[in-house]
Amino acid sequence: MNLRAVASAALSTKGRIALVGLLLVGGTVGGAFAAGLLGVPSVAAMNNTFGEVTNETTTIETDLVVSNPNPVGIGLDDVSVNYTVSMNDIEMAQGGREGVRVGTGNSTLGLETEMRNEAIPPWWVSHVRNGERTTIDIDATVTSERLGRSVDFSRTREIDTDLLGAFNSDETRPVNADSAFTDDPILYVNETRGEWGSVSESETPIDMAFTVHNPNLEPYVVSEIGYDVTMNGVEMASGQTDEGYVIPSRSSETIEFTTALQNRHLDEWWVTHLDEEVRGHQASDLRIEFYAVIELPSGTELTVPLDELTYEETIETDIFDEGDAVRDSDETGADGSTEDDGSSDGTDDGSSNGTDGGSSNETDGSTDDGSAGDDTDDTNGDSENETDGSDDDSDSDDDGILPL
């Protein structure tokens, strides 16, 4: 008897049996997905933060919570995840990953994409034109080519600022020359007004008006008003008026002029805005300083700093509703789960609390032809509301997301 031939035949038989078994299992799993017995993974939540910032780029770090409603982990080469971050319909960043593997329950995938800082000036223009309001849209899609299905997730958030509101004032402020040639105060500013002008791609004008009162018996001439505008120390505008104004004796005159922020400096400002060490979390200091060149009745000209008119306002955004939370550098979540390892964290809702310096609304929702979205409401120190919504046109929720 040929023992080698017998052993070879036995091994070959076992190999065929094993192969048939694997094909049966694979066919069963694939058939179960096709028949709707197993659920399609969906996006449960998405949390974004800003990472490393350079003069040219800003890294957006994304923790995408994928919900797998099945009792087993899934690793399909044809499953892909894509997401887009837009601000006032201006695409700021786009990223994704193919060949995603997820465990049971909720798994967190860590993604990174780079945003070009040159996108900041166009966004700023849209923000000012829109009444200092920005709508942030975050859209994600999980797609399986094998199953021919995709699940969408969207989050919408609004932020607003008010940079010039406090500049509008009826407070009377003295103008002191601190000079031996005249007594102080030489003039009074009884009113200041400021509003955005017609914004272009290159400039953001601020139309200003000062109501100046002359308490003296002789007319005074304001031959020039100069200004310097900075944001976190970055020079945004500098200049002076082109004409002089005569302020009659014991009368008032309105001086009107326009400053123009240079939008080309906005990407430089953006770097400081995201630097936590400068002003804190996504905060900036807008500062406008003025001086006046005043001609006395004697003909003497004095350059007078208008310190009482110096304007300061804090800009806060909190674009991704992070609050003071900072994404762990080792990509480990607060609940101890790690990204992209196929494990279930079961607790990450992808949201965090924060303030943006104004009122904001946030809406989360996931849509699919058989899936529903479920997330938790979130409130912050301002008047912020977050609403979760879903769109389900099927009576079955087998392929929906798991509660977070």
Helix- and strand-based class?
A: mainly beta
Number of strands: 21
The helicity comes to: 10-25%
CATH architecture of the largest domain: Sandwich
> Low-confidence stretches at least 5 residues in length (pLDDT < 50)?
13-29, 325-360, 366-404
Average pLDDT metric: 77
Percent strand: over 45%
Order of helices and strands: HEEEEEEEHEEEEEEEEEHHEEEEE
CATH class of the largest domain: Mainly Beta
As laid out across the biggest beta sheet, the strand order is 5-4-8-9-20-21
Biggest beta sheet attributes: 6 strands, mixed
Tally of helical segments: 4
Tally of distinct domains: 3
Instruction: Please state the overall shape, judged from the principal axes of the Cα atoms.
Output: rod-shaped
Spatial separation of the terminal alpha carbons: 65 Å
Within the CATH hierarchy, at the fold level, what is the topology of the largest domain? Immunoglobulin-like
